[in-house]
Amino acid sequence: xxxxxxxxxLLTYLLSNGRHKWIYILYKTLPRDLKAAWRxxxxxxxxxxxxxxxxxxxxxxxxxxxxxxxxILFYYEDEKxxxxxxxxxxxxxxxxxxxKGWKKGDSIGLLLENRPEYVGIWLGLSKIGVVxxxxxxxxxxxxxxxxxxxxxxxxxxxxxxxxxxxxxxLDSISELTLYQFRGDIALDNxxxxxxxxxxxxxxxxxxxxxxxxxxxxxxxxxxxxTGLPKAAVISHTRYMYAAVGxxxxxxxxxxxxxxxxxxxxxxxxxxxxxxxxxxxxxxxxLRKKFSASNYWSDCQKYxxxxxxxxGEICRYLLAVHKPGxxxxxxxxxxxxxxxxxxxxxxxxxxxxxxxxxxxxGSTEGNxxxxxxxxxxxxxxxxxxxxxxxxxxxIIRCDENTAEPIRNSEGFCIRCNQNEPGILVGKIxxxxxxSEFTGYADAKATEKKILKNVFQEGDLYFNTGDVLVQDDFGxxxxxxxxxxxxxxxxxxxxxxxxxxxxSNVAELKDTVVYGVQIxxxxxxxxxAAIVDPENNINIADLAAKLKAHLPSYAIPLxxxxxxSMPMTSTFKLKKRDLQNEGFDLDAVKNEHxxxxxxxxxxxxxxxxxxVYQAIIIGQIKV
Length: 621
Hints:
Its EC number is 6.2.1.3. It comes from Hypothenemus hampei. Residues 62-382 form the AMP-dependent synthetase/ligase domain. Its main location: membrane. The chain is of the alpha/beta class. It has four domains: 2-38; 57-364, 3-Layer(aba) Sandwich (Rossmann fold); 377-478, Roll (Luciferase, domain 3); 484-615, GMP Synthetase, Chain A, domain 3, CATH 3.30.300. It is built from 18 helices and 28 strands. The strands form five sheets. An eight-stranded mixed sheet has the order 2-1-11-10-12-13-14-15, with helices on both faces. A seven-stranded mixed sheet has the order 7-6-5-3-4-8-9. Strands 16, 17, 18, 19, 20 and 21 form a six-stranded antiparallel sheet that branches. Helix 13 (341-351) links the parallel strand 13 and strand 14 (355-360). The longest helix has 33 residues, at 20-52. The chain is globular.
């Protein structure tokens, strides 16, 4: 009744003021907005209750264990883990590290493939207040060492598959206690993790420091917009908020079975998917590593009616699908980000999924959006009239520097409808929906905060991403600004890759940027290197890049140049390089272009034939 009366009053006002456009917009969006408002109210009520009751992830999970001890929490290959089994395993982890003197605030790195024990380890550590740093399993050499240092890890739990990577930095981590998860011990002084916890009590640990919702639960690493990966602080409240946002806004229930082939060290796989299990009691099917050919068969095998994705996954699924055949699966909802508008409808028509819940958000940010009504290409919406309640706003920025443009009074300028700009979100500390808990590095935290945005003293989180909002309130992702691009579902910091190239090639003038490849999500890496004397050893460079960078960060293209284009103020014209990309017709003849052949692990000259094969998709990248 309240909403009906409000709608009539609003329509009357608009009609009396001749605002027919707004009447049409209201007519089109009111059902969507009412649905979202109700789900949003439930979301906020639940979070408020958790904060009031000092609920943590571990206490929330313990409640589920009491309610449904024998319900299956995880399917993993041919294993089945119940809620009770994970609780007992996590208690053993907690009791072992408590007995060794670990205490609240200490940090331990976790470098392990997807498996149920992964969750049991960080959940157990959280029961004694130890913070787990979730480490990307693709990392080697300096990037791996950086993550351990920035999270101040005093120990590392690693899988047998990652022992070679750990061995590569062994001399630099001599002070860390090493635990190998399973298998024959490959490194000197490493402790068998499985043996260490085998005989520990399965009861919950006692006499531990109080754990509160605001305490750190884990670190998840993110490239942000510049520099080396940052350790984003994930508190218990933030973890639960991520889960409750997806749960309520996507209208899920405890009876749903969720398919998760994404890595557990990432937000989508480790927070959103796992959070639905440990916070809301859903069953989650895990896969060690994503497989396009097994995606739908896994969903069928485990009875998954909900699954997650990143944009690349959707493209891969379409690529392996045989035209004219129908895939049998029970999936009704898919939740993720990065599905390109160009293949959105084709994906729906091919696989007959009822709902695509595309969302926008970052590990550490407070600008969270979700598409609840299948609007093609949209990452979510905020009605213009609701902006005062949810301050997620697009502001004008310089096209080249991505710096906010300010008016004569020194304040930022809100973009008009359909005008692209930088997305920012108002920071309200203590509010789970709008707070910014930042990074382990205080300086990195400060760089992401915009001050005095619309009034003196206000604070906003700067996403660094360019979005646009249409007349109906829908947001559409346009580009990632700054010095980061996204490839294979991973953020790549250009400065990190530039540093590696400069070191291994002994060259000073290097610039790295992302370039678009038709039919691919994100942008592939390309490096322009100044080498007028033609001294660079391309084969040696390829070998060293492979040794020092994860596979997704190795530039797919090299451009060897005589000099670097500069502005009159001696700034690199990176945008010009990006626009020219790897197009052989766009670059000067004397510039050499190379393509990284991942099968050969070598750079090969980019011929017109290879270029054309990449453009039409004959060569898979």
